[in-house]
Write a structure and sequence with these properties.
The structure holds 3 protein chains of 3 kinds. Chain A is of the alpha/beta class. Chain A has a single domain, classed as Rossmann fold. Chain A contains 5 helices and 5 strands. Chain A has a 5-stranded parallel beta sheet with strand order 2-1-3-4-5, sandwiched between helices. In chain A, helix 1 links the parallel strand 1 and strand 2. In chain A, helix 1 packs across helix 5, helix 2 runs parallel beside helix 3 and helix 3 runs parallel beside helix 4. The radius of gyration of chain A is 13 Å and the shape is globular. By secondary structure, chain B is mainly β. Chain B has 4 helices and 12 strands. In chain B, a hairpin with a 2-residue loop joins strand 11 and strand 12. The radius of gyration of chain B is 16 Å and the shape is globular. Chain C is α+β, with helices and mostly antiparallel strands. Chain C is 42% helix and 22% strand. Chain C is built from 21 helices and 22 strands. Chain C has a 6-stranded mixed beta sheet. In chain C, strands 6-8-9-11-10 form a 5-stranded mixed beta sheet. Chain C has a 5-stranded mixed beta sheet with strand order 20-12-13-22-21. The longest helix of chain C has 28 residues. The C terminus of chain C is likely disordered. The chains are: A alpha/beta, B mainly beta, C alpha+beta. Chains in contact: A-C, B-C. At the B-C interface, strand 5, strand 6 and strand 8 of B face strand 21 and strand 22 of C.
């Protein structure tokens, strides 16, 4: 099905996201922070990027901005994983080019429901 | 020395009745049997490394593909006269249920004899030997053709105190 | 799909404990005046991850507690709140509280609510307004939806909408799942072809959604494009007028979609983690794995080369040459593979050092001492198991240095030293060992007091002459403690003897070097791993035993003059003013030795538990690294034997337990005959 880049510095969250997505038949590439994700994204195409916001080295907002500047990611749905459901974080993410967000905590079913929104 | 995989020798017969099969071996003129499902493999006798300050029937330990496995001489264990080890001498490697875990142990016997189908109802309880024989290791006796097979309880036999003292102290 | 979230719990606990270590360390950094934004950021990130994970994995009590913590940290991060000691103290406390909560949950127990509530209160007090409006309740205040006949939605995306990754078609599909959808396209904004930017969106839509659809459900579809479009949503005209009380009622009675979706998460905590608490795992850096894979590759090449050789029709001299090369290569591959597999279990000692800044900070404050902790060699690696077991002895030694080594500021000033004392933790590799030093610039050991105490305790005879080193070593003697007042800081009952015992149990040694007025240095030497041992093979008759190299002091030819008999029953060997009991390994183990007379064999002087014995053996064979195998797996513990190993030829050799042997030889000493004496 879809090829998805999952970015989170927390191993447990990353495993959960990857496990859930793989269970739904998707291919998942995991990255541990923005820098790692950007390296893995370059020269490739993904159907979806799911990224945490707070990460060391390069945070999610910067990552989204960087990804959007890559031609291959111009229209790619990018979702941010955030606990900050406050408007300013979402706004910051949107300005950087995020498609939408998933608010933590979430469970696998919610995750799948949300990505169905963007994968169609 | 080549290990003969008992599994391959017997898989053809392992069906519904496998739980009733016993592998028999000889010690002096007696024939003993053990539950075939407990038999992991049969090896030729090879040298062992002695363990200090243990009873003489504990011959020592061998290297079984990287694990250290103790080997027990059944003749000495049962107080039978010792026999010079020869080409027929074999080690039967058994799986022993020991509390919550399984241990692997080898027993030295004169020779492997046969495999019999022995349903439980054909095994008669051993008579009381009045302490002359350590009957707690014996599940029972069974007649096969004109012979008598002494069926052993592997777990009781190999969990006696000399072999597994103070498991709680072990890691 | 139902996914068992408990499978991620262990990872969550592990990373949370790591996160807490980071938090603690960075908080201490903050306290020492380092207000670097990245410091606060990484503290925030750690708390944030714990909150996110605990919420997701159903550890609600942790999530709730961390929320307060996160709020406070967020304010600090944004500069809305100054970093003061008054803030750091409760934050440090919260690290402990979280650690206890997670430890309890990991063990399948409920955390003690009292300290959690107390700490939470403190954090809330700092925050000012206790309680505070939380996001969840704010969200439910959003316009409650009422059942309606449907909605008319006028949707005019801004040109850049597609570049946010949002796709109107997908949104319409989502709407269509809610009810009957009619879509009407509005092409008014479409420019002339020449002016058309292909990546922009010029279309607008008017959508009619019929059905009993809540307003929130519709809002949710457009949630992500708010600000990227003009949107008006109006109830369909034909909608029946709502009864005034309806909105409030529906909001209370029917859970909003968000709340409904939360339900599965909320039910998760009922499921107890099924994993055993002790199931431990290890995080391995990718480069280590990559190296292993490389090595496997080389091994495969060697293997194929050798198998080609095996298939050769005729085996000529050139084949032998290649066979030799191949075997040499195989040996190298195997050794490298072994080393690298062992490296997987290796972690930098910083994991063990991490707790000390906090410990020194807290303890120094308690004792009224000023101490600076210096760390070096934190990247020195050692086996995870060794690391876990060396923690407590290290804590004990550091406490000891703080308690007994470093003086009070007044005392230091009087001695002409800076008021702030220094404790230095250092680690480095030396041979196959790791060396850990705990150095302080305190008062040093009091030689006279130690000696007086040792004489008083009968450890030393009143007339014995001991070197300074020997006297210093007495602090490790069982039951020896010079602390005049037993403080609650270092050791109540637990003494240095236990430290030495624990280190010895790991196959290591500990010694102390001290200069009066200058300070003391404790040096710990440990094998890098417990799975492999540097051994000396010795032969007794036909048997081969492995003696741990670390226990060997020296091996020597017997000088008959130096052998003395004691009460005719035991022998000692006089070595540089020391009388060392001779232990005949053959006798202790009941095997047949070759050498009848001491001159025909060799003595291996070994040390364990502070005692020395001279093992009498027939011969010394090679030294080699051996892989330790347990005898207990299939057999049982045997006195004097710590395990077994498999030699190059596939046979089994037993590894001697020196401490056990010393005990064994003592119990036998009385009964042994001395007729073997030369």
């Amino acid at each position: 099905m879809a090829t998805i880049l999952a970015v989170d510095d927390s191993a447990s969250m990353r495993q959960m996201v990857a496990f859930t997505l793989k269970g739904a038949g998707h291919d998942v590439v995991e990255a541990t922070d923005g820098v790692d994700a950007l390296n893995k994204a370059k020269g490739k195409r993904f159907d979806l990027v799911i990224s945490d916001v707070n990460m060391p080295n390069m945070d999610g907002i910067t990552l989204i901005r960087e990804l959007r500047s890559l031609p291959a990611f111009k229209f790619t749905p990018i979702l941010m994983l955030t606990t900050e459901s406050t408007a300013d974080k979402k706004q910051e993410g949107k300005q950087a080019g995020a498609t939408g967000w998933i608010v933590k905590p979430f469970n696998p079913d919610q995750l799948l429901a949300t990505i169905r929104k963007v994968l169609g | 020395m080549e290990a003969m995989q008992i599994d391959s020798a017997l898989t053809g017969e392992v069906g519904d009745g496998s739980e009733d099969q016993v592998l028999t071996f000889t010690l002096a003129d007696e024939e003993y049997g053990v539950d075939i499902l407990r038999v992991q493999e049969i090896k030729g006798w090879d040298s062992v490394t002695g363990i200090p300050n243990t009873p003489d029937y504990i011959r020592g330990v061998i290297n079984l593909r990287g694990t250290i496995v103790p080997v027990i001489d059944m003749r000495l264990r049962f107080g039978l006269p010792p026999l010079e080890y020869g080409p027929l001498t074999v080690v039967i490697v058994l799986r022993v249920e020991s509390g919550s875990r399984t241990r692997i142990m080898g027993i030295v016997v004169d020779a492997v004899s046969d495999v019999y189908n022995l349903p439980e109802d054909r095994i008669r309880p051993a008579p009381d030997f009045g302490g002359a024989v350590e009957s707690e290791f014996i599940t029972g006796l069974a007649g096969v053709e004109d012979k008598m097979v002494i069926v052993l309880d592997v777990d009781r036999l190999l969990n006696s105190r000399e072999l597994a003292v103070m498991d709680s102290l072990g890691e | 799909m139902s996914i068992d979230l408990s499978q991620f719990l262990e990872t969550f606990y592990e990373e949370s404990f790591e996160g807490l270590e980071t938090m603690e360390q960075e908080l201490l950094n903050l306290e020492s005046g380092n207000h670097d934004p990245e410091t606060i950021n990484s503290i925030f990130r750690a708390a944030h991850s714990i909150k996110g994970g605990s919420g997701t994995f159903g550890l609600d009590s942790v999530a709730e507690y961390t929320h307060v913590l996160e709020t406070l940290l967020d304010e600090m991060r944004d500069g809305r709140r100054a970093v003061t000691p008054e803030i750091i103290a409760p934050l440090l406390e919260s690290v402990d509280v979280l650690r206890d909560m997670l430890t309890a949950l990991r063990a399948g127990e409920e955390p003690d609510p009292a300290p959690v509530a107390a700490s939470r209160q403190k954090l809330e007090a700092v925050l000012g307004a206790a309680g505070g409006g939380d996001a969840a309740s704010a969200a439910t205040e959003a316009t409650p939806g009422a059942p309606a006949a449907g909605w008319q939605i006028r949707f005019r995306p801004h040109p850049h909408l597609l570049q946010t990754g949002n796709d109107p078609v997908r949104m319409f599909r989502e709407l269509a799942e809610l009810g009957d959808l009619e879509v009407e396209v509005d092409t008014d904004a479409l420019p002339a072809l020449a002016n058309l930017a292909p990546e922009d969106c010029y279309l607008g839509w008017t959508l009619t959604l019929r059905g009993d659809v809540a307003r929130e459900a519709v809002d949710e579809v457009f949630d992500w494009v708010e600000g990227d479009c003009d949107l008006t949503i109006t109830p369909l005209d034909s909608a029946p007028p709502e009864t005034p009380s309806a909105p409030a009622e529906t909001a209370a009675a029917t859970p909003s979609p968000a709340a409904k979706a939360d339900a599965p998460a909320a039910s998760a905590p009922a499921k107890k983690p099924t994993r055993p608490a002790e199931a431990s795992s290890i995080r391995v850096a990718i480069d280590k794995i990559d190296e292993l894979i490389n090595m496997m590759g080389e091994l495969v090449i060697t293997q194929s080369m050798l198998s080609q050789l095996g298939e050769a029709e005729q085996f000529g001299p050139e084949h032998i040459e290649r066979l030799r090369d191949g075997l040499a290569q195989l040996e190298r591959n195997t050794r490298e593979l072994q080393e690298n597999v062992m490296r997987i279990r290796m972690l930098p000692i910083s994991f063990a050092f991490q707790r000390f800044p906090r410990l020194v900070h807290d303890l120094g404050a308690k004792l009224g001492k000023q101490v600076e902790l210096q760390l070096s060699g934190e990247q020195t690696e050692l086996d995870k198991t060794v690391m876990e077991k060396i923690g407590d002895p290290l804590v004990h030694l550091v406490r000891n240095s703080l308690d007994h080594g470093i003086e009070t500021p007044e005392q230091r000033r009087a001695a002409g030293k800076p008021e702030t004392g220094i404790i230095h933790l250092n680690a480095f590799h030396e041979g196959g060992n790791i060396v850990i030093e705990i150095r302080d610039d305190g008062a040093g050991l009091n030689r006279d007091r130690i000696l007086a105490k040792a004489i008083e305790n009968g450890l030393v005879g009143p007339d014995e002459h001991l070197s300074d080193e020997q006297i210093h070593d007495l602090i490790f003697a069982p039951g020896f403690s010079t602390a005049e007042v037993v403080s609650d800081v270092s050791g109540r009952g637990v003494g240095m003897d236990v430290v030495r015992k624990n280190i010895r149990a790991l196959g290591g040694t500990v010694e102390v070097h001290s200069e009066p007025g200058q300070g003391s240095t404790f040096t710990i030497r440990l094998p890098l791993t417990l799975a492999i041992l540097d051994g000396q093979s010795v032969r007794v008759g036909k048997e081969i035993y492995i003696v741990p190299l670390i226990a060997i002091i020296e091996s020597l030819q017997v000088d008959p003059e130096a052998v003395k008999s004691v009460t005719g029953a035991a022998q000692v060997y006089c070595l540089r003013d020391e009388y060392i009991p001779i232990v005949h390994l053959a006798e202790v183990f009941g095997v047949q030795a070759e050498a009848r007379r001491l001159e025909d064999g060799l003595l291996v002087v070994v040390e364990g538990e502070g005692s020395k014995i001279a093992l009498f053996v027939d011969d010394l064979l090679g030294q080699q690294q051996v892989v330790i195998k347990s005898l207990e797996t299939n057999f049982r513990k045997v006195d004097g034997i710590s395990g077994a190993t498999i030699l190059g030829d596939g046979t089994v050799a037993l590894i001697l337990d020196i401490t056990g042997l010393i005990g064994l030889s003592r119990t036998r000493a009385t009964g042994s005959d001395a007729t073997r004496a030369a």
